Amino acid sequence: MNTIHPAERVLMGPGPSPVPARVLRALGAPTLGHLDPQYLAIMDETCERLRQVYRTRNPLTFPVSGTGMAGMECLAVNLIEPGDEVIVGVNGVFGGRMKDVMERCGATVHALEAPWGEVFTAGQVAAALEQHPKSRLLALVHAETSTGAHQPLEGMADLAHRHGALFLVDAVTSLGGHELRVDDWGIDAIYSGTQKCLSCPPGLSPVSFGERALARMDARKSKPQSWYLDVSMLRKYYLSGGGGGRVYHHTAPINMTYALNEALAIVLEEGLDARIARHAAAHRRLRAGLDSLGLSYIPRQSLHTLNCVGIPAGADDAALRRRLLEDYGIEIGAGLGVMAGKAWRIGLMGHGATTRNVDLILAALREILRPSTAG
Ligand SMILES: *Cc1c(COP(=O)(O)O)cnc(C)c1O
Questions:
Q1: Residues 336 and 255 in one domain
Q2: What is the CATH number for 34?
Q3: Which of 268, 293, 323 is the last residue of a domain?
Q4: What is the value of pTM for the model shown?
Q5: CA distance 207 to 60
Q6: Looking at residue 374, what is its pLDDT?
Q7: How many structural domains comprise the chain?
Q8: Rounded alpha-carbon distances, angstroms, from residue 256 to 48, 164, 333
Q9: Atom in ligand 1 nearest the alpha carbon of residue 70
Q10: What's the gap in Å between 326 CA and the centre of ligand 1?
Q11: Residue 252 and residue 302 in one domain
């Protein structure tokens, strides 16, 4: 029988990011039962670490079984009832997906649109809330991975709350890499993923729900259409605390919980502020290097974690990315949606946001761009 031997790539795309050996070792620890007291203690500790990384005291903070998209669906199916009006910021692929997911929940979605690469101002958000005063929630993508745009969030919750709307955030490419303060910023519900700035394999989606979101769920007239993602049942497993009274819902992805637990330990050992500063420094170094290669950023307010640059005129997108992968073992991301063929997306996430990786990709790009730039 064959065994598999995946190559050790340098993962510098839009995720997954490189996974530290400590996390891979944790993944290989013995599998426990999902109601074993030892496992429940690990799960409780993981949720507590998630609260620290999210900077929240929300008791209902846990990893949804599934990738970031499962977190998006989890928020939508639990916080929306058919007929609800909602406002979603759409300035890239992921805002577009939120709109799609929420429409499938029966919502009337008022899309607040901006050109790809742009972000929304508080004034635009306030105007949308005034135009659609019955909106039950406002949803924004903090880090739009398809364009590399960095959406400011401070002050947005107050605008939503003034209109009785909840404030929902997609933090898949910001958690663990960018400043993010769930409680201070008044965010009512948020989701993320493990394989971006937390440097854990894909498979879990950390979510957190605040008091307003809990009240909204408690007041539902109808059951969420998803059984698997129904938080009223999930909370009986994740929230009962102290190891007693846990109710089986589905078998938790045990070994992925170990991996997330270890990945969060690494984040907290480094310290959130130091980690965010490291991402910023890697971004600045990359930006300066790309500048000198004549490559320019597409968004005006760029993320540190995802760098979206225009492909030089005349360059063969697919062939150059293939050379990066085959000759250098480096993966970067292609353009998504309207940016397909026009942009490259270079991720500096978690374990990958290092001087070494920045200098490696710059050296490789210099090399592979030489024939086309020198004519
Ligand atoms: C990656 C990503 C998602 C989806 O996460 P998956 O883990 O691929 O399901 C959602 N939103 C944003 C902003 C992302 O970058």
A1: no
A2: 3.40.640.10
A3: 268
A4: 0.97
A5: 8
A6: 45
A7: 2
A8: 16, 37, 25
A9: 9
A10: 26
A11: no
**Which conformational region is residue 242 in: left (phi greater than 0), alpha (psi within -120 to 50 degrees), or beta?**
left
- Using pLDDT thresholds of 50, 70 and 90, give the confidence band for residue 371: low
Say yes or no: 176 and 304 in one domain. Answer: no
Quick check: CB of 96 below 6 Å from ligand 1? no
19, amino acid identity: V
Phi, psi (deg, nearest 5) at residue 337: 60, -130
Q: Report the SS3 class of residue 137.
A: strand
Amino acid at 202: P
Q: Is the CB of 67 under 6 A from ligand 1?
A: yes
Which residue has 């030089």 as its token pair?
312
Which residue type occupies 149?
A
Q: What is the pLDDT of the chain when averaged over all its residues? A: 96
**Each residue's pLDDT tens digit, 150-173:** 999 999 999 999 999 999 999 999
Tell me what percent of the chain is helix, strand and coil, each rounded to the nearest 5: 40, 15, 40
Q: Is 353 in the same domain as 261?
A: no
In angstroms, how far is the first alpha carbon of the chain from the final one?
Answer: 49
Domain ranges, residue 126: 21-268
202 close to ligand 1 (CB < 6 Angstrom)? yes
